[in-house]
Amino acid sequence: MVCASGGINRFKRHLAGIKGDAEHCTMVSDEVIHQMKQVLEGYASNKRKTQEIHEEQNPYDQRQRVREEEMYMTLQDEAPQQQNNPQQEENITEPMS
């Protein structure tokens, strides 16, 4: 088999018999087919986990924006309560000359 492009993953899909950009290999045992399917499923699972981690850490992710908006709204709700609290004392320092 000669691969012009596609690399090792394309070859593994060929051995596993996964339809797509490679034909099913007819000269491979059932054990190899099973092993290649497991390897490709493992890669897909790891890729999903990595992608989820990156999405959680992405400051531009939609979920992160929602969390920030919720925090902002909570702070806005708490700010008037703190201003109206007569027991709260402000620390005023005099400027040094």
Automatic annotation (TrEMBL):
Residues 80-90 have a biased composition (Low complexity). It comes from the Eukaryota. Residues 74-97 are annotated as: Disordered. This is BED-type domain-containing protein. It comes from Turnera subulata.
